[in-house]
Predict the structure.
Amino acid sequence: MSDTAIATALTELVGVRTPIVQTGMGWVAGPRLVSAAADAGALGILASATMTPEQLRSAVREVRSRTDAPFGVNLRADASDAGERVRIILDEGVRVASFALAPRPELIARLKDAGVVVIPSVGARRHAEKVAAWGADAVLVQGGEGGGHTGSVATTVLLPQVVDAVDIPVIAAGGFRDGRGLVAALAYGAAGIAMGTRFLLTSDSTVPDAVKARYLAAGVQDVTVTTKVDGLPHRMLRSDLVDALERSGRTASLLRALRHASAFKRDSGMSWAGMVRDGLAMKHGKSLTWSQVLLAANTPMLLKAAMVDGRTDLGVMACGQVGGLIDDLPSCAELVGRIMMEACATLGRLPTVE
């Protein structure tokens, strides 16, 4: 726990002690990590896309049993059961709803009418402008350094663009791990930072030790971007599996995607009709081909293989570029406390203006 305070528009908006967000990583951001991040003073975000609605309700209640601090839930705005998941958020009194895609104006209004803070994630200025106009309370902006699905514009270029374009709090993501990064983001005009890989690599994360060891052994050059997992740019650790995926042909990729779609259907409890509806929404929202939509079935199960089952040979390991600089596994309390101390020390070293 950190006693060092830096008040920003983010801390005031969601009621946390520090301007730090732990992102909603599928298969990673479960109750243990989220409650530990929240207790440390950060905004913990529970990942719901890889949960059934029943599992989501149970996970929210488990977080509640572990901490009294504010936390949020991340969900897909285009999912066929988004309305049901929003109902769970409202029923359970969750403080924050974050979205991987821009939620519809009516969904934002429904949440805000119930007192829920709405924070969509975006990767472009025009998307930030859109959700701000629709009533979002804040926006999380991820630059190209970020792990998982990512864009091509660096945080240092994208962040000031968005800060200048909207009048709501902006949270910076992509390339952050320490107090110096927090100060840099604040200097650009952000209200805080969001981190995924840095929280994944903590002792509170449930990711298997063998997988964490692979991350810790990686350098910056070991983090790559590939489109071979699901047809979209995806930043992850390079591995033999990634190399094999990049060598595979179109037919093999589609057959693999079909197998993983079937496995995800079983694990998520979704029907084929629901998966088709989600595919249609994804296809329209991202202008994807049907081949790309089918390939997207790879992502949840390949991530699960590594993040849950510990199979670095069969799974993919989403990773921000900053992962190549991380070499330890602190607790969330140690991490957040260290970041805040570093931030204050950095601010103290800055030259004064006379």
